[in-house]
């Protein structure tokens, strides 16, 4: 757990308040970091798409702010991040299918529309990817709920508000 914690803090350059809050529980931070650092079939950009869509859907300003910065560190522009938060990614057809799948999954509590699921698979995703997408949705939902309940200070630059309420 200690190695994962140090690596995570090195990425952002400080100990995020989310991690400090998890540390109030004897095992939560280690469990959370193990989940975040598990081996996955998804690329970093794909995980950021999931993190942004889920955080927008759940209204978690902490995670939106953190993942806006992490998304930029992984090559997304501000405009792309704002679009991804609406459940679309017109700049990349595969990420677009992923964003739509994630939004449909969270909106419908795991019952994504058949059309969106088909687009997900046509885009090149597999059942192994589907499982990993759901695990990342769960991971991000945990953090969203923790922040929304605890409402600790956001220690990242605040994410821009969406101009239209798409989600």
UniProtKB/TrEMBL annotation:
- Pfam families attached here? CMD (PF02627)
Q: Matching InterPro entries, A to Z? A: AhpD-like, AhpD_core, CMD-like
User: Which stretches make up the Carboxymuconolactone decarboxylase-like domain?
Assistant: 38-91
Question: PANTHER family given for it?
Answer: CMD DOMAIN-CONTAINING PROTEIN, SI:CH211-175M2.5
Q: What is this protein's name? A: Carboxymuconolactone decarboxylase family protein
Name the species this protein comes from: Arenibacter arenosicollis
């Amino acid at each position: 757990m200690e190695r994962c914690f140090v690596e995570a803090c090195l990425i952002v350059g400080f100990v995020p308040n989310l991690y400090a809050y998890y540390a109030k529980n004897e095992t939560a931070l280690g469990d959370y970091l193990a989940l975040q650092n598990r081996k996955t079939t998804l690329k970093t950009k794909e995980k950021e798409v999931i993190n942004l869509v889920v955080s927008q859907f759940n209204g978690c300003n902490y995670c939106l702010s953190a993942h806006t910065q992490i998304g930029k560190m992984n090559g997304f522009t501000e405009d792309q991040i704002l679009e991804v938060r609406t459940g679309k990614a017109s700049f990349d057809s595969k990420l677009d299918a992923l964003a739509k799948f994630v939004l449909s999954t969270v909106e419908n509590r795991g019952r994504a529309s058949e059309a969106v699921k088909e687009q997900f698979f046509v885009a090149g995703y597999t059942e192994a990817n589907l499982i990993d997408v759901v695990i990342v949705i769960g991971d991000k939902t945990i953090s969203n709920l923790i922040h929304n309940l605890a409402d600790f200070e956001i220690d990242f630059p605040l994410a821009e508000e969406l101009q239209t309420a798409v989600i």
